[in-house]
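Instructor's aside before we start: the two examples that follow are unrelated to each other. I chose them only because their records fit on one page, so don't look for a connection. First example below.
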Amino acid sequence: MTTLDSQTDKTLSNLDKLSNTELAEIPSDHGLPVGISPLESRVAGHPSLDIERQTIGMLRRSDGRVYKPVVKPLLGKREISFYENLQISQDPVMLQLKNYVPRYYGTTELQIFGRRVTFLTLKDITDGMAEPCVMDIKIGRRTWDPLATPEKKATEELKYAESKRTYGFCITGFQVYCVSSGQLKQFGKHYGKTLDAKGVVEGILLTC
């Protein structure tokens, strides 16, 4: 885990106490608040933070927390509700699921590219790892939302079709640290879309 200097440590300890405007006015080299940077271990899903295109991606705090942007208001509201209900639910299934879900710290608002953006604040499960190996998996044969349009459903049905039909899940991307070369290899979502049933097995077993 990276050691923080006293000034950054003080800033991070006060992040949750600051108002949204105050937080937005703290500058950094990335145009982000001090102690916050793009999440480098992202392998699929949300796009990367891009200053030129002004796309907002996953962010990481130096104290081991991750900011996940709420891109779509309706889906974001449901995701926030899920995490909040998970904290108080006494349902046996939910209690078991809680053991496999990153710790939830609530939501945070940041001013990014002139826009106020809401983020879910979660624990970074790769915190303290020098070369984290990460795999992004979608579980289930159906990957479209119940409220999706017919066009969206048709598009989703075509994605990762063989993998979902055969195994009930698909790999959307991953990164693996190669001990022999000392390099971290990333396989993004475009690679994931090429995986057939055999390719999924090869991807899971991949070593260097």
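Example two begins here.
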Amino acid sequence: MATRLRPASKKCTVIGGSGFLGQHMVERLLDKGYSVNVFDIRQGFQNERVQFFIGDLCSKKDLIPALQGVNVVFHCASPAPSSDNKELFYKVNYTGTRTIIEVCKEVGVQKLVLTSSASVIFEGKDIKNGSEDLPYAKTPIDYYTETKILQEKEVLGANDPENNFLTVAIRPHGIFGPRDPQLVPILIDTAKSGKMKFMIGNGKNLVDFTYVENVVHGHILAAEHLQKDSPLCGKAYHITNDDPIPFWTFLSRILIGLNYEAPRYKIPYWLAYYLALLVSLLVFILRPVIKVKPTFTPMRVALAGTYHYYSCERAKVDMGYKPVVSMDEAVKKTVQSYSHLKRAS
């Protein structure tokens, strides 16, 4: 019996497919009948339906086999934002992305969907229901974000309908969910060390946290709606749960769900910010003598104590986006998935 070939439009490559978001993306694409390649520096999981390509995304030689014969590329490879490796941020987010664009054009990929970040417009000051029309941050909150701005500009600038190469950027914010190696494990480690007793500010600042399945849904919708003459070409789109929640309420729900105490005491935002500045100054002065990586930084204070939530209106209008998992259900699923971290009563 002859093997039935999938149409080219159903062939895709997920760059960074072994990561947290990438794995969820691969699973959903397979569910939707796509033929999936994964390109990454490691094979993070086993799946007979996936073809894995291991390599360096700055190497055209490594990328070409993974991108040949593919219609859509999802680029969600990224170092952890909490890293302080500037060289790696620049290599992956900027140099690697430029290489991906070159290879896509060489081998005839038609669509490139980038995982960007809503933080590309955040400068540590309140953003309430921010639209994609806000300018890029002139003073990004960290070097990771600075390179994400460079990355997004490269991808959107590469949009070229005349030569059948279309690009779009998805800007999620505060991704969380099962298998997340960052948010929940770090939160629980902080609680275990007794450092989650204080909240910064009055606890009312609304923030977007976005469940991973909603982020995946936004990416796939973007790929499917990205056509010549569509409004998506060369544009960025915010994808969130469309349900901003007070920052400390969200963290408290995760902590309480895993049997830890929620923060009880409040530190005024201005005081926390200036203390963090002082700590940063001391670390800078002592750097020649002592190597210290502070966790209490002005950037983290800003993330914890300001409003930063974003409008999904453009995504609703242009690609029919709406979250597929509500915030209540998302928190419940996430807590259940981390039951192994639950504190014994």
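Residues 1-7 have pLDDT under 50 and may be disordered.
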